[in-house]
Amino acid sequence: MSDVLRKGIILAGGAGTRLYPLTKALSKQLMPIYDKPMIYYPLTTLMNCGIRDILIICNPHHLNDFKDLLGNGMQWGIEIQYKSQPSPDGIAEAFLLGKDFLEDKNVALILGDNLFYGNNFENNLKTVNQEKKGATLFAYPVSDPSRYGIVNFDKDTNKVIDIVEKPPNPKSNYAVTGLYFYDNNVIDYAETLTPSTRNELEITDINKIYLSENNLKVQILGTGMAWLDTGTFDSLQEAGAFIRTLERRQGLKIGSPEETAWRNKFINDDDLMALASEISKSSYGSYLINLINSKFKKKDELI
Question: How many whole angstroms separate alpha carbon 71 and alpha carbon 99?
């Protein structure tokens, strides 16, 4: 897959201290969000961009668990590689850890505990994925802006004028979400960073470099979009309830790598059926089998 424009990184490291004792023996990103592991949701977000080369960065203690769950991605028509992050030294460290993986390619970075869902979002991602230069971020209105990196806009022009990490007195309620698109210059920028007062390489510092060069775009995710950061007990439960409600009402799965791969033509009908047959006794497997059966039923009705 060396001809791709952009590769993907899922940052699934950290100690998960906010979810202790759940995370004492299990990675946060392997916990269930309703009927699927948390990691499935950011993984399918990247897949829906058209990205097929993906690096997962995780705590070394959980590396084998991720490999057992996801393998090398071949079953979904993608390629997954792995890298350990011995200590949580900041989001921007992902570009240093992923330097050899990225080579000269652009990158989409998504945090392993972030979940996105919304109308036409997939098509929007595919458009952003084709951009060759600069950076694109997504901002979302929140009720507690002091917890996030916040985008400040010029009141007259709506142009981005600053990004502030966890401001004590926020001038905006638009938080930077955990999905970032960068050109390959991000590696060089990351190499120039020095640790913050939190002793981390801050992603906000990367974004400010792009902003200073007038090379930063910010898309606002508003009505019809949902962004969930599943890093607390409450948000974990809220995300599960959200997915459950949508899936039961719509009869569709959200965050299924098998279905995502199939709909994006990474795998064919036979591949999907083989994957579904392995887990046919579960409701998840039955759902995948029904996808194939429904497709052929529609074909028969048209004949």
Answer: 21
**With contact defined as beta carbons under 8 Å apart, do 172 and 150 qualify?**
yes
Query: Which residue pairs from 15-22 have beta carbons closer than 8 angstroms and sit at least 24 positions apart in sequence?
Result: 15/59, 15/88, 16/231, 18/231, 18/232, 18/233, 19/231, 19/232, 19/233, 19/236
Kindly state the tokens that stand for 86: 């011995």
DSSP E strand stretches across 142-224: 149-153, 160-165, 174-182, 216-220
What is the mean predicted confidence (pLDDT) over 40-51?
96
Element (H, E) at 136: strand 135-141
Cβ neighbours, 10 Å, residue 222: 11
In angstroms, the CA 17 to CA 41 distance is 21
% of the chain residues with pLDDT over 70: 95
Are the beta carbons of 113 and 230 closer than 8 angstroms?
yes
Q: What residues does 8 pair with on adjacent strands?
A: 54, 108
Q: How far is CA 80 from the centre of its chain?
A: 14
CA atoms within 13 A on the CB side of 136: 17
CB-CB neighbours of 194 under 10 Å: 7
